[in-house]
User: Fold this.
Amino acid sequence: MRIYTKTGDSGQTGLFGGGRVPKHHPRVAAYGDVDELNSTIGVARATVPEALFDAELEAIQRDLFTIGGHLATPDPEKVRAALAKAELSANRISGFEQAMDAAEAELPPLRAFILPAGEAKAAALHVSRTVCRRAERSVVALAAEAEVPALFLVYLNRLSDYLFTLARLANLRAGRADVTW
Assistant:
């Protein structure tokens, strides 16, 4: 099987479960932005120190694959079996919240806006945070015209906060202060 199919050469793409839409369609933008977010998290995982937050970030990547699969599927009934393994639990959101609450005990209070800077790991996490916000905007735009699970909107909103917190923790654990504005 070849990686290229030539079926997208005219500006159309196929959706999971069938159908074709223009590549600028809000559905394609939404799952494309989620895919880009997943890739930036891969970069954050590969950034030294690689072990720092690795398990947490891998779990997020798996969640994002789940979200992307659902977003790429306009008719979930057609691919119900394939999506059966792609469940996302609301417990993931409460897990983010608990981790952020625990981080508050370790982090100095936030008294100013901070620049997305510091250690390479923190900077990579800040890039992921900003890409997450864009992905959230794209999914919100899709939700204005198509059915999108509300859990996905909450997940992406909370994830950006979590990535911000991880960036601050990465700086703190490396002995670097946040760079304030």
About this structure: The chain has one domain: 20-173.
